[in-house]
């Protein structure tokens, strides 16, 4: 309850560069624009697991078995 949720002023400035590379999958070389925000979730969760346990999981999906194996590997080192 004491953790303050980050708000807009807490976010650093982000510089955006648009690189036009046609897609072979979309019509007329088009591709989705909003999917780029999805790629940050898995690394954030994996880093949270690492911060909490010290075990680095480098493969997705981030399932309990992989976390367990990473914990075992950490214990052996």
SSE inventory with pairings:
Blueprint: H1 41-53, H2 64-76
Question: What features would you describe in this structure?
Answer:
The protein has 77 residues and is an all-alpha fold. The chain has a domain at 39-77. 34% of the residues lie in helices and 0% in strands. It has two helices and no strands. The longest helix is centred in the middle third of the chain and has 13 residues, at 41-53. It is flat. The relative contact order is 0.09.
Overall pLDDT level = 85
Structural class, judged by helices and strands? Answer: mainly alpha
Describe the global form: flat
Biggest sheet descriptor: none
The SSE order reads: HH
Short description:
The chain is built from 2 helices and no strands. Helices cover 34% and strands 0% of the residues. By secondary structure, it is an all-alpha fold.
Key words describing this protein structure:
single chain; mainly alpha; 77 residues
């Amino acid at each position: 309850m004491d953790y303050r949720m980050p708000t807009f002023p807490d976010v650093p400035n982000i510089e955006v560069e648009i690189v036009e590379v046609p897609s072979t999958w979309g019509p007329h070389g088009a591709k989705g624009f909003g999917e780029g925000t999805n790629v940050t979730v898995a690394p954030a969760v994996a880093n949270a697991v690492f911060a909490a346990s010290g075990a680095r999981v480098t493969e997705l999906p981030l399932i309990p078995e992989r976390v367990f194996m990473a914990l075992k590997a950490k214990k052996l080192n």
